[in-house]
Design brief:
outer membrane lipoprotein receptor (LolB), chain A; alpha+beta; 13-stranded antiparallel beta sheet; two-stranded antiparallel sheet; globular; disordered N terminus
Length: 247
């Protein structure tokens, strides 16, 4: 009986401490995630390029380059630029719907955000990167990541369509930039880790320029993403229509 009482008291104290951490910044856990999102998805309509390099045992296995056009949180078109033999292949996200489009194939193929695009990179790692709209956030504590005092948050999916069902997410307390994420499988086992390495000025703020993703079990398997060429763009709704994209 005493053990149960003290265990319950300990839980209450921990919850209060976690709440005070967030309130010290004047922000809820959800607001912390939304601020960090601005470094990964600056909002509005924009485009950029991302080069994905896949390594194993430090040996380069593949290089791919994609041109990404985005409007808000729900509309994204990913065009394959390199390798040349794959040009014309596209991923189109409209809401929770994702289609794979191949030249000379009349009908787009429905795919999931969870499916692998290349190396350690899933479709959703490029097509849908707004955590605030896709996940409920809860503050777990505070840790130092890459020399930066950071909030540690747990994010749980709002729907089953998102890329990951659950993740841990570290966000810097001073700059509100993402530092690290650990993604979990439905079984509860960790799948992979993402390290947010570099940020550069673009679109009026600091945006992510280098991301490294490692396999949880095979740490020799690494995908490095380099982001560049951020530009403000104006897209009409028809730009993200699967029939017009497939033409």
């Amino acid at each position: 009986m005493k053990y149960t009482f003290f265990k319950g008291l300990q839980t209450v104290i921990m919850c209060c401490l976690m709440s005070s951490l967030a309130s010290a910044a004047g922000l809820t856990a959800q607001q912390i995630v939304e601020k960090a999102d601005l470094a990964r998805s600056p909002g509005g309509s924009f485009s950029f390029q991302v080069r994905v390099s896949d390594f194993q045992n430090k040996k380069l296995l593949a290089d791919s380059t994609y041109h990404v056009s985005s409007k808000g949180n729900d509309l994204t078109l990913v065009d394959t630029v390199e390798p040349a033999r794959l040009r014309g292949r596209k991923l189109l996200m409209n809401g929770n719907n994702l289609w794979f489009i191949v030249p000379d194939v009349r009908r787009p193929t429905r795919v999931s955000l969870q499916q692998r695009l290349t190396g350690e990179v899933a479709n959703g790692d490029i097509a849908r990167v707004n955590f605030g709209s896709d996940y409920h956030a809860r503050l777990l504590g505070s840790e130092v990541i890459s020399g930066s005092d950071s909030y540690k948050l747990e994010l749980t999916a709002r729907t089953k369509e998102v890329t990951y069902s659950r993740l841990w997410y570290w966000v810097g307390k001073k700059d509100f930039l993402p530092k690290k994420a650990t993604f979990f499988a439905l079984s509860g086992k960790p799948l992979k880790n993402a390290y947010y390495k570099e940020f550069k000025p673009a679109l009026g703020r600091s945006v992510l320029s280098k991301l490294v993703i490692t396999d949880e079990l095979r740490t020799d398997k690494i995908s490095q993403l380099q982001y560049s060429g951020f530009r403000r763009r104006s897209f009409d709704e028809g730009f993200f229509n699967k029939e017009s994209v497939a033409e």
